[in-house]
Write a structure and sequence with these properties.
The chain is an all-alpha fold and 110 residues long. It is built from 1 helix and no strands. The longest helix is centred in the middle third of the chain and has 105 residues.
Length: 110
């Protein structure tokens, strides 16, 4: 079997095309892997960000609950103080009325 110049060129060309094809396929495969890794990193980053936001939301909800409790306690205290004030005003009014009655009786006697 005789190896001629054309056969050598065809063999070298076939090896080059095969090597280039393998490199192109490997490059595409590596590109897809890298893209998949990048997407996974971005998803992990977003998951961490969502977790941080959930923690911040929980803290805000807890703080809001504390403020609502303080508000309702203050309203309850205000109602209590208002009730005491009204009771005191009634007593004062009653005492003022009694004093007026006593003044009227004393004026009639003297």
């Amino acid at each position: 079997m005789e190896i001629n110049y054309i056969s050598v060129i065809i063999a070298i060309s076939a090896a080059m095309v095969s090597g280039m094809g393998t490199a192109i396929i490997a490059g595409l495969r590596d590109g897809k892997k890298e893209k998949r890794r990048q997407i996974e990193r971005e998803q992990d980053h977003l998951k961490l960000e969502v977790k941080d936001l959930k923690i911040a939301l929980y803290k805000i909800e807890r703080e809001l609950t504390e403020w609502k409790d303080k508000y309702y306690n203050a309203i309850q205290e205000l109602i209590s103080v208002k009730s005491e004030l009204e009771e005191t005003l009634l007593k004062l009014s009653f005492m003022d009325h009694k004093i007026d009655d006593l003044d009227g009786v004393l004026d009639r006697e003297f």
